[in-house]
Specification:
binds guanosine-5'-diphosphate, binds magnesium ion, 3 domains, 442 residues, Rossmann fold, Four Helix Bundle (Hemerythrin (Met), subunit A), eight-stranded mixed beta sheet, alpha/beta
């Protein structure tokens, strides 16, 4: 699913990763590549243009967060915008106040309507509902047979009547459902290879006859821009409620998925991911976005860091440092903030300034555990006035924390250096302070 788009986006992001700071220039450069990747994936050009503009606006506006690597931040922004583009949240299908709920399934020929109808029936059945399938595709004789075969497989009744029109079958199926206590009717209709007037009229007539609670438009994701055009045409005539994207298991380039919502302003509700009748998924925009980006981990990490890194606290901390009031107590606080976010090795790169550390500045979990142990072995007074920690106290602290006097000495020395360095810093500069907190593992 979306492999080539994912690959191209990765290339675009790689260039940003090396950069230290988000500037209008490097945002523009990388977004140009993102845009090209989207167009190659057959995303509607207007949609791609708007998308890039939105990302750009947010990226430039977020210079405060130059704390992350630009690559990580851009990926997060692109991810958020992609979720927005795909539609914010999943949507359930309508349910009629008085049963049966009537669902009309429309779309071009071969898009997967009949398969989807059966999949949906299967899905509803598994949720305890009693669906009925209605075979209202009367134009291809095999279509009714196909639905009957599928219905048998999932043990869902199929309403069919050979030699009649679609409107009559649809109406009768609703009556049949009422009499036979089926709570949901799924009406499978005929499609054509291309949007044509006769087909539209027929679907409209069916709609007017049964007044469906939900009209779902089925579209083959592999058809890219054609899918978008078909969606627009059906939308103008039918004002459908939701979209079903099929064949996402194939080598879909992703264009349809990314464009349809923006073009028709209707949610994608389901995706088909295979020919089998259980190959149906509810549509979750965030999952699809992270599949497209292939960067789920980074997005999660940036989110965690944004969540946990308390900007206000950091500013206060900086103030303290500049006044040399930063104590081991504060330091311990910081350490714990960092640890909340997850494995240190992953998280460090996302702490302001940490991403600038030289590659040989080793940080590992054990080193931090040791630092924490040392600080914990200090008395409250020692923590706030490290100056009083003489030789005897050092030995006691080493013993109490299961470390050596050298370890304690090293920590004290680094802490002192950090305080010195902080005095030289300009206001607002968090980076160096955090860098000062880089205590080597051993
Ligand atoms: N790989 C894959 N094939 C699908 C999917 N949905 C439908 N198909 C296949 O697409 C073809 C056309 O499906 P059909 O339901 O008959 O389309 P209809 O003409 O719109 O009713 C059939 O061969 C289906 O098995 C899907 O999600 N993935
Ligand atoms: Mg069909």
């Amino acid at each position: 699913m979306f492999e080539s788009l994912t690959q191209k986006l990765e290339t675009a992001f790689k260039k940003l990763r090396g950069q230290g700071k988000i500037t209008p220039q490097n945002v523009e450069d990388s977004l140009r590549e993102v845009r090209r990747a989207l167009l190659d994936a057959d995303v509607n050009y207007k949609v791609a243009k708007q998308f890039i503009e939105d990302v750009q606006k947010r990226a430039i506006g977020q210079e405060v967060l130059s704390s992350f690597t630009p690559g990580q931040l851009i990926i997060k922004i692109i991810n958020d915008e992609m979720v927005k583009l795909l539609g914010e949240s999943k949507m359930d299908i309508a349910s009629a106040q008085t049963p049966p709920t009537v669902i009309l399934v429309a779309g071009l020929q071969g898009s997967g309507k009949t398969t989807f109808s059966a999949k949906l029936a299967n899905h509803l059945k598994s949720k305890g509902r009693f669906p009925l399938l209605a075979a209202a595709d009367v134009h291809r004789p095999a279509a009714i047979d196909q639905l009957e075969v599928l219905g048998k497989q999932i043990e869902v009744p199929v309403y069919a009547e050979r030699g009649t029109g679609a409107v009559k079958i649809a109406k009768e199926s609703v009556n049949f459902a009422r009499k036979n206590v089926r709570d949901t009717v799924i009406i499978d209709t005929a499609g054509r290879l291309h949007v044509d007037e006769e087909m539209m009229k027929e679907v409209e007539a069916v709609r007017d006859a049964v007044k469906p609670d939900e009209i779902l438009f089925v579209v083959d994701a592999m058809t890219g821009q054609d899918a978008v055009n078909a969606a627009r045409a059906f939308y103008e005539r039918l004002n459908f409620d939701g979209v079903v994207l099929t064949k996402l298991d194939g080598d879909s380039r992703g264009g349809a998925a990314l464009s349809i919502r923006a073009v028709v302003k209707k949610p994608i509700k389901f995706i088909g991911i295979g020919e089998k009748l259980d190959a149906l998924e509810q549509f979750f925009p965030d999952r699809i976005a992270s599949r497209i980006l292939g960067m789920g981990d980074i997005v999660t990490l940036v989110e965690k860091a944004q969540e946990h890194f308390d900007e206000e606290k950091a500013v206060k901390m900086e103030e303290k440092l500049r006044k040399s009031q930063f104590t081991f107590e504060d330091f311990l606080d910081q350490l714990r903030e960092v640890k909340k976010m997850g494995p240190i090795s992953q998280v460090m790169g996302m702490i302001p300034g940490m991403n600038k550390l030289p590659a040989n500045a080793e940080i590992d979990e054990r080193g931090l555990v040791r630092v924490e142990a040392i600080i914990q072995s200090m008395t409250a007074e020692e923590r706030s006035r490290p100056g009083i920690i003489n030789g005897t106290r050092r030995r006691r602290i080493a013993l109490g924390s299961g470390t050596t006097v050298q370890d304690v000495n090293r920590l004290l020395k680094q802490f002192e250096e950090m305080q010195k360095m902080m005095k030289k810093l300009k206001k607002g500069n968090m980076r160096r302070m955090m860098q000062g907190m880089n205590f080597p593992a051993n």
